[in-house]
Amino acid sequence: MKKSNNITRTSLPFPHHQKMSRLFIFLNIIFVLIANTTSLTEHNLKPKPKPNTFVIPVFKDTRSGLYYTNVTVGKPPVVANLVVDVRGSALWFECDTVGYNSTTSTPVPCGYMSPSSAYVAPKLPVRARIACRGYFEGMMNMLPAGTLGILGLGNSSTSFVSSLVSSYKIPFKVSLCLPSKPGNNPGSVYIGGSPKRKDLTGLLVSTPLISNRETKEHGEDYNYFIDVKSIEVNGKRLSFDHDLLKNKRGHWGRTKIKNVIPYTLLEAYIYKALVRAFSEKTKKRKAVYPFTDCFSYKSFGEKSLLGKETPVISLVLGEGAKWDIYGPNSLVKVNKNVVCLAFQEADEFESLFPIEIGGYQMEDNLVEFDLEASKFSFTSSLLRHNTSCSPQ
């Protein structure tokens, strides 16, 4: 099956009024299926084994900083590029734009989401839930040009992960390895299991996944949260009011994993504390949009952002785990002389969370959401181990 990794950048004519459709469809998504058995020939009458891990290739869109995959849907088939959203509650796309008029679809009334018959390559049946755009009207302007929807991987009964878990009786486990560069070497999403890569053995560190009562009350329980206790830079604890990391009235003191924002958002006082720590031994430079704090590349050795001159940011998590964020995930090189801090100050009127971890901080890190064990696992930067999310 031929894989496409280029987004056609065109202005997409989106209609303004459209009801959500519940679709009985045939879905063909570019998957690699892994099974712990030997392959069977077409003459072998034994039933084929069910896969225990699905692997989806993920590409980076440099203009938006988001990540996407390619999906073929319907009969006759049409192709759509979908943004991968680890907290997305559903698989949905802009049906009219791609001329979707499948003979296997059946619209149902708006307000409900029913199962759909589907196939994943190579023609293995799965029950999936898919919606046309109307229900998600407000999200279209957030997507990169050329993408037509969301592949939702969240903790939701309507997410694509839940469809595979239900059909194949696999664990509710999502592993994400985002690529840092565009091109023909994608990263991967693993559903149901972990990557079978020897270069990743022994690198995962774990902390509990936590629930957030307030988000459940507001119907957002499909998000993934972790408990950040404090933040360190080169082992020194940042100075700010750590009550910001706790739940309180009008403020949800949990850290959300949100790869559909390019850079991690920090509450204002936390962001300022981080800037102070980075500014102690570096020379400030004029800000380069969209960043607000930039520095001389010479201050970090001018050779590699993995070098000892680059401060290491550590998120101190529940049960003593530390997620270390190294230079390639904390700084963006905007030209040969300037790097900028790859964190942004959250809008106090828009964000209810002290920390929302963005996609850039997860690039070339393997992260894993294990709902069965209620834990979040991570590797920190794979570049330190001479590997990446897009190994050659």
From TrEMBL:
It comes from the Eukaryota. Pfam families: TAXi_C, TAXi_N. Residues 67-379 form the Peptidase A1 domain. Belongs to the peptidase A1 family. This is Peptidase A1 domain-containing protein.
